[in-house]
Amino acid sequence: MPELVVDFITSLDGYASAEGWPGWWGLEGPEYLAWLGENPEGDYLVLMGATTYRLMHGFTKVGEPGTDVLGGMSKVVFSSTLTEPLEWDNSTLVAGDAVEAVRRMKETGDRSMRTLGSLSLCRSLLAAGLVDRFRVVMFPVITGATGAERIYDGYPDVALDMTDSRTFDGRIQLVEYAPRVLDGPPGTS
To answer: Molecular function terms in GO for this entry (predicted)?
Structure first.
């Protein structure tokens, strides 16, 4: 069965972005960019929502470092607001229920998938029990005053069993987990 990886880039305090800060909080380093260039899971189908699609396509248009590889990847965009044809190459639009579509893709497909941003999509997929691997790359900043898009708001309780970790450039931390959605805090059910 194909794997589904949820993939987040975050500040230490759990924000996906911050007002006035550059991409990657201006801290992308050569080791991290080299890892991105190696294109881990490059053959995976990339899943995203409309907001992330617009943002990332815009980044590729202006040459944001590390985003050039996204153009050649196959992408599925879940949206009720976008229309065909999508401007970004290798992008397919799905207007229906994302959870059901991904469930079918896992059951009948042969290609593993990974998300890109798309906070509400990831939340829905995790709550539905479809996520096999949860990867977070944490940048060493706290953006409490300017942080935007709190990643974990609205999530169910989730137990995370660590499967991998790595440090890039002596400061950027990658952690990977196998998630288990819980009915509530341990010992309460």
So the answer is: 5-amino-6-(5-phosphoribosylamino)uracil reductase activity
Determine the topology of domain 4-181 in CATH.
Answer: Dihydrofolate Reductase, subunit A (3.40.430)
Tell me the domain boundaries of the chain: 4-181
CA 88 to chain centre: 18
CB–CB of 100/116 below 8 Å? no
Dihedral angle of Cα 93, 102, 46, 136, to the nearest 10 degrees:
140
Residue 86: DSSP 8-state: P
0.85 cut: is pTM over it?
yes
**Alpha-carbon span 182 to 63, nearest angstrom:** 41
Residue 33 burial (C-beta neighbours within 10 Å; 0-12, 13-18, 19+): middle
CA atoms within 13 A on the CB side of 138: 15
Give the Cα separation of 49 and 79 in Å (integer). 6
